[in-house]
Structure prediction request, 81 residues.
Amino acid sequence: MLNAARQQVTVRLPRSLVEFVDRKALDGGANRTDVLIDAISCLKARDMEALMAEGCRDRSDLDLRIAEENLAAGAENLPEW
Prediction:
């Protein structure tokens, strides 16, 4: 993220959040921007994980049907022991 183009924005935050961001920056040897980038990146990753989980749930019935069909087709070609 260090080489990504950055755009300056102005936001208004509750004082308690500004104090939290400042503490995190101080504790981590970073600045406010770095802390906010990290926090927003975490939110973005969480959204992506939720979308992926939703996609897996949506596909589960199809995947099960395909697996059962392939198992049946494979069983027809296996020699009996």
In short: The chain has a mean pLDDT of 86. The two ends are 59 Å apart (CA to CA). Residues 15-74 form one domain.
